[in-house]
Amino acid sequence: MGLLPVVGESLQYSRPSGRFLPAAFILDRIKRYGPLFKSHIFGGPTIISTDAKMNQLILQKEGNLFKSSYPRLILSIIGMHNTTEIHGDTHKVVRNVILNAVSRIRDEKVISYISDEIVHRMNAWNGQIVRFQEEATRLSFNLVINQLMGLSNVDDANEVEYLLENIQMLVDGLSCVPLNLPGMTYRRCIQVVKEALRLVNPGDIVFREAIQDVNVDGYVIPRGWRVMPSFSPAHTDPTIYKDPLSFNP
């Protein structure tokens, strides 16, 4: 459980891991104890779950068996009244205020980026024959990955073509008949979205607290204990997904 009661195993948990991979700490504990185990991180005892069914139960039973409860260390950084700790109408008001503020800032940054990118590409076209449609597509593509994903421009032709094919599936899915059947455009679009979320989950962990003793398959999660579902281990499990680190919608 670690040498210091407050620190516990927090330092081990914080060690970096490979791209798309769960934390090395979690993978090591899964090998030792299985998909549901006890630790002491972020200043308190914590049940860590990497089991898909258990995680689903924790998320579905929020308000009945569990409540949102982030460690004090995290709250001291992001604020005691951040959007993860407020609920109902108050949460809606705060969320709208944040979205409106962020939208104005992003608009200014997007306009500046587009202007700089156009100048850069026009300089690169000097003395060349330009296929305008291809260049316009590339410009739009780089705008998306830069502003929405925070990635640098992608110039490798094969990589661009592969990414554009998957993006085109999403675009086609917006105007297709919404039939979730094999071979249909809508189904392929959904598969692209799910595969993206599987590999790059924007919320890989969440924190909940048991509001009563919770019995799960003979194991008891005591009232007041923090529970931390971790989703990436199941998403990168080779027994579930063939070649789990590849993007294959």
Summarize the structure.
Keywords: Iron, Membrane, Metal-binding, Oxidoreductase, Transmembrane, Transmembrane helix. Belongs to the cytochrome P450 family. With 249 residues, the protein is of the alpha+beta class.
Largest β sheet strand count, sense and barrel closure: 5 strands, mixed
Rg to the nearest angstrom?
23 Å
Separation of termini? Answer: 40 Å
Query: What is the CATH architecture term of the largest domain?
Result: 2-Layer Sandwich
The proportion of strand residues reads 5-15%
Number of helices, counting only DSSP H or I runs of 4 residues or more: 9
CATH topology of the largest domain: Uridine Diphospho-n-acetylenolpyruvylglucosamine Reductase, domain 2
The assigned structural class equals: alpha+beta
Regions with little confidence, pLDDT below 50 for 5+ residues: none
Q: pLDDT average, as an integer?
A: 77
Membrane topology: Single-pass membrane protein
Family: Belongs to the cytochrome P450 family.
Subcellular location: Membrane
Protein name: Cytochrome P450
Report on this model:
It is built from 9 helices and 7 strands. It is of the alpha+beta class and about 250 residues long. It folds into 2 domains: about 10-80 and about 200-235, Uridine Diphospho-n-acetylenolpyruvylglucosamine Reductase, domain 2 (2-Layer Sandwich); about 80-150, no CATH class. A hairpin with a 2-residue loop joins strand 1 and strand 2 (about 45-50). The longest helix is centred in the middle third of the chain and has 37 residues, at about 90-125.
